[in-house]
Amino acid sequence: MSTAIELTGAQYISEPSTLAGATRHVSRTASYSSTLLHQKAENGWARPLMSEVVDRALGDPKISPIAARKCVAWIRRIPVGVPVPFFAVGEDGSLGLEWDKNGSTLFLLFNQGEAEAYFEGANGDEWESDPDVAIDKLLQALRVISGM
User: Fold this and answer.
1) Which of 50, 75, 86, 122 is deepest in the core (most CB within 10 A)?
2) What pTM was computed for the model?
3) CA gyration radius for the chain?
4) pLDDT profile of the chain (148 residues), mean per 10
5) Phi, psi at residue 143, to the nearest 5°?
6) Alpha helix segments (H runs only) across the chain
7) 137 within 8 A of 124, measured Cβ to Cβ
């Protein structure tokens, strides 16, 4: 069954994806497409982590509701099979998701104005970008983190 989501202003329809295969997708309103999309199936850790993000945001006035929404939206997009990330709140109210696995590190940072992704692979591959722009790189980084 298909799932429709809102992704940077464009609506996408996708079949649930896995890390092992590519997702077929159709854009209704934009020419740019994504391979890292919200799935009907989700990681068992996703809902508790989304609840923690919301609870922390409600209890800490430094955390922007925009940052919390961005973080929750990305948690929902993470493909099934990716291990649970470490979640942290920065002193400035930024929210972070971090994976350190198989000698590689992926860090997603969310604050009021923007989101950033940082990756350092065990093989020396290194990059940083807006996660909405670097979706293919982010998907590859998640494959590496997952050992696939």
Assistant:
1) 75
2) 0.71
3) 15
4) 30 31 33 36 88 94 93 92 94 95 93 91 93 89 89
5) -65, -45
6) 46-59, 65-77, 135-145
7) no
